[in-house]
Design brief:
mainly alpha; Growth Hormone, Chain: A; two-stranded antiparallel sheet; 22 helices; MFS_trans_sf; protein transport; transport; POT_fam; Dipep/tripep_permease
Length: 601
């Protein structure tokens, strides 16, 4: 293939989209398996008692580290996007990122203090190289089919959530029920599978993502007639200042809390040193951003302002949505009745079996469709993909077998128990893992993504602002559910037995909110940003996500403080009100943003 045209990619299709999209689908699926699998365990591992193999941290310290970790994960995409654009290309960036993440998960599985921190650092840089460049490849494949982009990103996002679902389900189960090492280790194994599958199938992308050379740079510049706006030395210095200050703050914030103030880079700024540092970094960055916008051509400038507006809304979305692995997981672990008996035990076991097996069947069917189109040309990649699915099926069946046995509905001989590495039990018990509730988000996305994709492609497709307004409204509705469910918990209570239905409703409404905002937001970046800036601007988008992620950690840090003084319900009502305000603001700004988008829908 000498050229990358949309028509060339659409010659071999799966479900109406290029086969290459589904190579990315499965690569991203295994990466998200590893990322969400580990992430679902992190807060629980840090706060678990020493006797349970954890570090016995306070919730405040665990949330501080978690917030900085996920914030750095998305902030590092700036670095990965730059190197891909200028030096190594999208494909090598994906491979480098996947390798670093494989090593990171392996390091965490060792479970020493040094290896856990080293693993988190490797995962931060690995995600930075991997994440923005996967979406950049999707964007390039659809550059001449903008009307198909929303549907493509939604299907791609379905792959993201298929990986998240199985990662949380299986890594979470192994971590909680068997041992933290098994949960962390399994995440690394499937990241390795994802890397191999991508590398061996890469020719399917034609020239997309190759290492930049003089010819490709000249071609990109010829296609882009937009006004150039190089960075001056002063602007580069401002970027360096704000970036270094923000990075130091992200590291120092948890370090100063965990060490009790013994480690504090900004102590010379006084007791509010952390706040002064991050506010200074944000002010410098915002001033620079405003100045840069004034230097572009009118249409480009206005489109970039529109992207920045949606990025601003995205900060609030992720700060509230990402309570899932944080305060909502704590709520599931300590305040929710997860022990089931009688008919409810049977209902859960059957339902859990269905939500495990049916998605596996669906994804396996997609895998078979991909095989039909690509096996002749990429046999080894497909074989590796098959092996990974065989392992997933084996672990899923083992998990269900263990659950039915533990609940007393399946009898197994001692020799079978020994062969399956299942501990013998004398008292039947069905206890839902705290991480299990997080799988509902991914399950609902797998179920609802095709419906939303069709909605976005229909004549009833809402405007960008209305999509954000609907999404934030649904986010508010979900938080209102858990706030209402927690209304009976007294201030200062450390445990409770709230019904599981409230968490189920939270994840249903939050899933619909995510489908309105997250994949659609990525699509608007690709539509509104000039081609030469696409990977970098995806990095800027993930900067907004990083701020939201750290915001989620900061919310989580205060859950005990607020719950002790006002009650746990008060905490969730606060998040409900914030969501409603942002939703109304998005809708009110519709006329202004529509004009700035210049006809882009």
């Amino acid at each position: 293939m000498s050229e990358n045209t949309t028509d060339q990619f659409f010659k071999s299709t799966v479900l109406g989209h290029p086969a290459g999209l589904f190579v990315l689908f499965f690569t991203e699926m295994w990466e998200r398996f590893s990322f969400y699998g580990m992430r679902s365990l992190l807060i629980l591992f840090l706060t678990a008692s020493f006797t349970d193999g954890g570090w016995e941290w306070t919730r405040e310290n665990a949330s501080a580290l978690f917030g900085s970790y996920v914030g750095l994960v998305y902030l590092s995409t700036m670095l990965g996007g730059y190197f891909a654009d200028k030096v190594i290309g999208f494909r090598w960036a994906v491979v480098v990122g996947a390798t670093l993440m494989t090593l990171g998960h392996a390091s965490m599985a060792v479970e020493t203090e040094f290896s856990i921190y080293l693993g988190l650092v490797l995962l931060v840089f690995g995600n930075g190289f991997f994440k923005p460049n996967m979406t950049s490849i999707v964007s390039e494949m659809y550059k001449d089919r903008p009307e198909k982009k929303d549907g493509a990103y939604t299907l791609f996002y379905m792959g993201v959530n298929a990986g998240a679902f199985f990662g949380i389900l299986l890594c979470g189960y192994l971590g909680e029920k068997v041992g933290w090492t098994y949960g962390f280790g399994l995440a690394g194994i499937f990241m390795f599978f994802g890397m191999l599958q991508f590398w061996l199938s890469q020719d399917i992308f034609g020239d997309i993502g190759l290492k930049p050379n003089k010819e490709s740079k000249a071609k990109a510049e010829a296609l882009d007639t937009d006004k150039r706006n190089p960075f001056s030395p002063i602007q580069l210095a401002a970027i360096a200042f704000s970036s270094i200050l923000a990075l130091l703050w992200l590291v120092n914030d948890p370090a100063s809390k965990i060490s009790g103030g013994k480690v504090n880079i900004f102590s010379f700024l006084g007791p509010n040193g952390n706040a002064i540092a991050i506010v200074s970094a944000l002010v410098v960055f915002i001033i620079l951003l405003i100045y840069r916008f004034t230097q572009y051509s009118k249409i480009t400038k206005e489109k970039l302002i529109a992207v920045t507006f949606f990025a601003f809304l995205t900060i609030f979305f992720w700060a509230i949505f990402e309570q899932s692995p944080n305060s909502l997981t704590i709520f599931a672990s300590d305040y929710t009745d997860r022990v089931l008996t009688g008919n409810w035990s049977v209902v859960f076991l059957v339902m859990n079996s269905l939500i495990t097996i049916l998605p596996l069947v669906i994804i396996t069917w997609v895998l078979i469709l991909l095989f039909k189109q690509t096996f002749k040309f990429y046999a080894l990649a497909n074989i590796i993909l098959s092996v990974s699915f065989i392992i997933i099926w084996a672990i899923a069946i083992w998990m269900l077998t263990k659950d039915y046995y533990t609940a007393g509905y399946l009898s197994l001989s001692d020799s079978t128990l020994q062969a399956l590495k299942i501990d013998k039990v004398t008292t039947a018990l069905t206890e839902v893992p705290a991480t299990w509730f997080s799988t509902l988000n991914s399950l609902f996305i797998i179920s609802l993504a095709p419906l939303f994709s069709k909605w976005w492609e229909s004549k009833y497709n809402p405007s960008a602002n209305l999509k954000y307004g609907i999404g934030m409204g649904l986010l508010a509705l979900g938080m209102a559910c858990v706030a209402f469910g927690a209304s009976g918990i007294e201030a200062g209570a450390k445990t409770a037995s709230v019904s599981m239905i409230w968490l189920i409703l939270v994840y249903l409404f939050h899933t619909m909110a995510e489908l309105c905002i997250s994949p659609v937001g990525l699509s608007y970046v690709s539509k509104l940003v000039p081609a030469r800036m696409i990977a970098f601007m995806f990095g800027v988008w993930y900067l907004a996500v990083a701020i939201g992620m750290k915001g989620a950690g900061m919310f989580g840090e205060n859950i005990d403080k607020i719950a002790n003084e006002h009650g746990l319900s008060y905490f969730f009502w606060m998040l409900t009100i914030i969501s409603i305000v942002v939703a109304l603001f998005s809708v009110a700004m519709t006329p202004v943003i529509k004009k700035l988008m210049h006809g882009v829908r």
